Amino acid sequence: MQSVASAIRSALLTAEPRAKCFATRDLVRRWRRGELDWRFDVTMPDKPAWPEEPELLPPNAMPKRGKFGSERARIALWHSLAHIEFVAIDLALDMAGRFGEAMGEEFVSDFLSVAADEAMHFALLSRKLNALGSRYGALPAHAGLWEAAHGTRHDVAARLAVVPMVLEARGLDVTPATLRRVRGAGDEHGAKILERILDDEINHVAFGTKHFLRIAKTLGKPPESLWQRLVREHFRGALKPPFNDSARLAAGLSRDFYAEVAH
């Protein structure tokens, strides 16, 4: 029987987007059916395989989207969201494969579930781009999303603090405004996609928070101060308001965590 680690590694090393989504969904189905062995007999790659397109640029080199109402700006928005979800597949897979042996089966199940959600989100966004006459890879994309994973590859607490509890939580903050713009432009189909993503991301942040709290309890440390220290050490950006406090709280992430380090 194939090991769960081997199946995760195989999906991480699949570059073509549709094939990566298929590999991810397939491994999650096999895991849930008990068809993957609880063995971590292979290591995770330092970097996942990605397609030749999109071209990856530093954040300060990304072209401006322009006014939202233009077709160019709409395509740029959906392309940006698709890229975030594509990288999020690998972030969740790497979380499960890199730290799963130490953290246990519930941890692996949670983050494989996240990976399956991200694959579904990417598929929805990819189809949205196709409907607009574009495709994923047609525009350049942000190169910095994987940096948080690479910088926390040796520390599960730091990874949880930065990826679900900062990066994904930021999605909870910004998605409602994007949703309002999309709905205001008459794109109800796009708004429904964003509503689905927002609901799922609350669960993803909740998974990260749950396992972070478990680690803090094991270490005998206050979770809020531990999180603040790890974010200061491992997150390069700023935690900027406004925050979607209600969605964050629904995910177990109270203001006690982030209010002190926000600026």
Features:
two-stranded parallel ribbon; 10 helices; 2 domains; 2 strands; 66% helix; mainly alpha
Protein model, in words:
This protein is mainly alpha-helical and 263 residues long. The protein folds into two domains: 1-48 and 56-145, Four Helix Bundle (Hemerythrin (Met), subunit A) (Up-down Bundle); 146-263, no CATH class. It has ten helices and two strands; from the N terminus they run ααβααβαααααα. A two-stranded parallel ribbon has the order 1-2. The longest helix has 33 residues, at 71-103. The radius of gyration is 18 Å and the shape is globular. The model has no long low-confidence stretch (mean pLDDT 96).
Could you state the oligomeric state of the chains shown? Answer: single chain
Radius of gyration: 18 Å
> How much helix is in the residues?
55-70%
Which parts are unreliable, with pLDDT below 50 for 5 consecutive residues or more? Answer: none
What is the number of helical segments per DSSP (H or I, 4+ residues)?
10
The CATH C-level name of the largest domain is: Mainly Alpha
Beta-strand share of residues: under 5%
Rounded mean pLDDT is 96
- Describe the main β-sheet briefly: 2 strands, parallel
What best-fitting shape do the alpha-carbon axes yield? globular
In what order do the strands lie side by side in the largest sheet? 1-2
